[in-house]
Design brief:
Blueprint lengths: L5 H22 L16 E7 L6 E7 L4 E8 L4 E9 H6 L5
Antiparallel strand pairs: 1-2, 2-3, 3-4
Length: about 100
């Protein structure tokens, strides 16, 4: 019987290690970001429009399913979106306007 070479042993060890990682990932519990039934799946509409401050534009994101509105703008210096505001439209619709 011919002895197994070092390369074959290394490949066998690598395959066993990868098999262990695969078993760990497939048997791990699922991640739960939000509790079940806590939030409906979003129905989004996005519209670009001007804002009062400066000469920049903003992106208005409406989640109709959850009745939420978020406003963001792009920051050139940071290269990312920055949040400007958020409104819970369900809460706003239940308020009575005061004088």
């Amino acid at each position: 019987m011919r002895p197994i070479g070092r390369r074959v042993q290394a490949l066998l060890a690598l395959n066993l290690g990868l098999l262990g990682v695969l078993a760990f990932v497939s048997l791990a519990p699922e991640a739960g970001g939000q509790p079940a039934g806590g939030r409906a799946r979003g129905d989004y509409t996005m519209v670009a429009g001007p804002i009062r401050t400066g000469n920049a534009s903003a992106i208005w994101i409406l989640d109709a399913a959850n009745q939420e509105l978020a406003i963001v703008r792009y920051s050139d210096s940071k290269g990312q979106l920055e949040g400007i505001g958020f409104r819970d439209l369900a809460v706003d619709s239940q308020r009575r306007p005061g004088r």
